[in-house]
Amino acid sequence: MDGGAASTDPDRRNSLLAEWRSPRTWRTALYLLVALPAGLLVSTLLVGSVIGGLLTLPLLVGAGVLLGALWLVGLLGDLHRVLAGLLDIHFARPLAPVSGGLLSWLRATLADPVTYRTLLFQLIQPPLIVLCWVVLGLLLTVAALGAASPLWLLDPAAWPVVWGDRTVTPSVSAVVGLEFLALGSVIVLGGVIDLFGRMWTRLAVALLARDPGAEAARREVVALRRAAGRVALGDDLHATLLDLTAQARDASTADAVILLGRDGTLLAGSGAWPDALLGLPDRLPGPGAADVRRAPDGTLLATLPVTLPAAAGGPEGGVLRARYAQGVRPGGDELAFLLSIADHAGTALHAAHLIARAGARAGEQERARLARELHDSVAQALYGITLGAKTARATLETDAARTRQSLEYTIRLAEGGVSEMKALLFSLRPDALEEGGLVAALRQHAHALETRHGLTVHADLRAEPPLTPEAQAAAYRVAQEAMHNVVKHARAAQVWLDVQVVPAPAGAAQVVLSVRDDGRGFDPQLLSPGTLGQRSMRERAAGVGGTLEVRSTPGQGTTVVLRLPATVRAVPEVSA
């Protein structure tokens, strides 16, 4: 979604033909050319369907025709939104409609203000576009007549000009004047086309935008939910930053969003960004602030700070920049959303830095310190999501009831993020497993899995199993890897997590941990048993004297069963 930059050369901007040198002028002319037949077609279809529905209303088909007219309002509105792309306006994709049948669709459509704004645009567009073409036609006529004036001088009899009772005879000075008039008409024509482009841009943004009020809040909630999950996953920094910029662009009205490091290095981006606008701005905004200014090409650039957590030792982590097409300006709510995305980027950068340090220093003391720092950074970020969602709920004035459910879900997501942070602490500090126990760690991880990925986890964890600290760590890592495989490969909706103590045939008790899903499964004969995930789980099981079994059938899910020897301190006999 490139914003179509005009020339940034001052000499070219100040020249008489500056508008004609701008690609935007030609795209606007193309829009005016295409919008005329499109507007007439839209008007004909809407008026025809409404009249047809009213005439046939006494019959059974009349109501269906009127419903079709209402459906056409949205469909033809999408046609106008596509045409608005010629003006460098790119509307965010709509969220998936809520299923519920014809009556639900009818209620939602009639209650949506976008329906009426779209209909208003479709009603006023044809006469306005005709008026535009009348003005352009007059200027084109003057320019054409002035350009053809030398033909009048060469053969006055072939081009007679009658003024009252007199026949005007051309002269060289009159022809020269007409040529200057033609040139002036061309110059004015470029300016008028540019003016029309700005007018149609503002009109389209005001009436065709899908994201005012509650819908924008819903979209931002979805984006923040994905961003929190991606940051919490923390598997690939570059992929995380790319996903954050994509979420920011999709959920906002920006044409492009980029992330820059503190030295101006491009970290990630979504959308086309001109090379001339890369780099850090001259003035950086303070923490929690946003700087919005106009670029030399006429677009708007919003710059927001990427703030690192307090544990990082400094607030500067770079900037997030968003580029808006001419005529589009972000509101305060959108800037607050982009600031939240920037905070997520800062958390991801800090977490990646901590993980790199953990890889370089694998000592237990260093890992415990990293766990404390992660607690300071991730917990603060997730707590900020909770405060942001509650604030949004309190400040939303347009159709707040419609967004309350999404906001409440975001709050629950933030609380789940805290649970995931605790699960991360368990994975970073083996002694935390001994302090909190395997059951507590698995509950935290199951809750985080439900919150972030929407899976339903049926956890039957019972009492704390009698295991050594090493066996606890191995069991937790195996369960973690198995559930990660469910998310990554299984396409499952439900997961069953079970831990129990069962008697062994020889009399010694075993702790049995199983992870089962209802996903697509696989053929064990076709999958190499030496894959990294299975090999890692088998090595962990063997390292503490246990065994691992993986059972799967295509279309019937997968079951991972880990059996570990129980310690002597407690052997409750619980049947399988």
From TrEMBL:
Coiled coil: none
TM regions (residue ranges): 29-51, 57-77, 128-152, 172-193
Source superkingdom: Bacteria
Single annotated GO MF: kinase activity
InterPro entries: HATPase_C_sf, HATPase_dom, His_kinase_dom, Put_sensor_dom, Sensor_HK_TwoCompSys, Sig_transdc_His_kin_sub3_dim/P
Keyword vocabulary terms for this entry: Kinase, Membrane, Transferase, Transmembrane, Transmembrane helix, Two-component regulatory system
Ranges where the Histidine kinase domain occurs: 477-568
Pfam families reported for this sequence: HATPase_c (PF02518), HisKA_3 (PF07730), Sensor (PF13796)
Cited PANTHER family: NITRATE/NITRITE SENSOR PROTEIN NARX-RELATED (PTHR24421), OXYGEN SENSOR HISTIDINE KINASE NREB (PTHR24421:SF61)
Protein name per UniProt: Histidine kinase
Species: Deinococcus metalli
